[in-house]
Amino acid sequence: YNVKMGDFDPLKEIGRGQFGVVRQVFHRPTKVVMAMKEIRLQLDELQLNQILMELNVLHQAHCPYIVDFYGAFFIESCVYYCMEYMECGSLDRMFSIGCPEPVLSRIAYSMVRGLKFLKDQFSIIHRDVKPTNVLVNIKGEVKLCDFGVSGKLNASLARTRVGCENYMAPERIKEGATDKGYTVQSDIWSLGISLIETATGKYPYPLSGQPAHSMFVIMKDIVDGPSPSVDPAQYSPDCCDFIAACLRKEPKDRPSYAELLEHPFLTKYQAEDVDMAGWAQKGFENIQS
Ligand code: ADP
C-alpha cells in the first residue's frame, strides 16, 4: 500500500526526537492507528527518492521482533516514516516500574531475535542498539526500531548524541567510530549495556560534570576500564553470565546471536510463562499518570 499524507488524521504527539516529531495518526484507508515519524533533512528530491527506495526494502521485513513498517513519503524536506504504533513507547519509559529477571530475559530474547533477523535476512547491522530504540506495545511485545536500513538516511542524519549515555563498543571508540568494519559484535556490546540499564534503570557508567567532559570520561572508561556488570547478589548466575559474555572487551570473544539464543538465561524463561502483558500494562498506566 502506498501511504500518503492525505490519508491520515492526526491523533496526538507521542514523542520528540532529535530530528523531528513522532505522532500517533489514523490511516483512514486501512483503519490502522500508526506512528508517523517526521525526519527533517536538508536534501534534494533525488536524494529523498533514494532514501524512500532504500526504506521500501522494509516492506519485506516482517518479523515479530521488528517494528512493522507501513511506508514512507516525503513533503518538501521532511521524510514521513509510518510504522506500527507501540503503546508503551521506548524501553527507557519502562525503567521506573522495574524489570524482574524473567521480563529482562524476554526482552533480551526479543532483541537478539530482532538483531539476528536483520543480519540474516538483510545483512543489516543495527549500529544504534540502545533502550530508546527498543519499543514495547500493550501486549508486552518488544521490538527494535531505528536500524540503519537506509545508508543514505543514516549518512544524512549526523548522528550526534544529545545525552552522554554511550552504548558504543570499545573497539568502535578506539577505531574512531567510523562505519568501516562495523560488525555484529559491536551491536552485541550495545545489547549488554542496554540490558544492564534496563535491569537496574540506570546507565552503568558514571555520568558526572559537564556533558562534554562526562562523555569524554565515559569513552575512556569504556575503552580502558573493566566492563560493567550486574550485582550477582540480585541477579542469577545465568543472567550475570549472559551480560558478561555480551560485554567481553575483545569483540571476537563475544558470543554469536545463535549462541546467545542457546544461552540458559534465554532458554530458561522461554519454557516459562512470563506475564509480559501485565508488565506492559503497568508501564502503560505509569506513563499515563
Ligand atoms: P530519537 O530521535 O531520540 O531516536 P525518536 O524520534 O525515534 O527519538 O522517537 C521519539 C519518541 O517517540 C521515542 O522515545 C518513543 O518513546 C516515541 N516513539 C517512537 N516511535 C514510536 C512508535 N512506533 N510507537 C510509539 N511511540 C514511538
TrEMBL record:
GO terms for molecular function: ATP binding; MAP kinase kinase activity; protein serine/threonine kinase activity. ATP binds at K37. Transmembrane segments: none annotated. GO terms for biological process: cellular hyperosmotic response; p38MAPK cascade. Keywords: ATP-binding, Kinase, Nucleotide-binding, Phosphoprotein, Serine/threonine-protein kinase, Transferase. GO terms for cellular component: cytoplasm; protein-containing complex. It catalyses: L-tyrosyl-[protein] + ATP = O-phospho-L-tyrosyl-[protein] + ADP + H(+); L-seryl-[protein] + ATP = O-phospho-L-seryl-[protein] + ADP + H(+); L-threonyl-[protein] + ATP = O-phospho-L-threonyl-[protein] + ADP + H(+). The keyword Hydrolase does not apply. Its EC number is 2.7.12.2. Residues 8-266 form the Protein kinase domain. The keyword Protein biosynthesis does not apply. Belongs to the protein kinase superfamily. STE Ser/Thr protein kinase family. MAP kinase kinase subfamily. This is mitogen-activated protein kinase kinase. It comes from Dispira parvispora. The gene is wis1. The chain holds residues 61 to 349 of 349 of the full protein.
